[in-house]
Amino acid sequence: MNKAELVSAIAKRADVPASTVDSVLAGLQEELVEAITRGEKVAVSGLLTVERTQRSARTGRNPQTGESIDIPAANTVKVTAGSNLKKAASSVPV
């Protein structure tokens, strides 16, 4: 499902105009980016948690040559599924 399909599905389910849903999603994106920039954790209960984490520097290997390479420390984003997403995923047969 891409963004346009998501906007359409939410608009239909919530019985609101697609432009409103699109504006809400744009606002959500902006707030998530700002919160991550500030180092804050964003939790939507039952759905997901998004937080900035730090990955320390480490030594890796170039898979083509096998040569050791230094990978610098970096900030990353961690997304954790909430209970409703986990339940939905586990209910689908493998």
From TrEMBL:
Pfam families: Bac_DNA_binding. Keywords: DNA condensation, DNA-binding. CDD domains: SPO1_TF1_like (cd14435). InterPro entries: Hist_DNA-bd, IHF-like_DNA-bd_dom_sf. GO terms for molecular function: DNA binding. Gene3D superfamilies: IHF-like DNA-binding proteins. Belongs to the bacterial histone-like protein family. This is HU family DNA-binding protein. The lineage of its organism: Bacteria, Bacillati, Actinomycetota, Actinomycetes, Geodermatophilales.
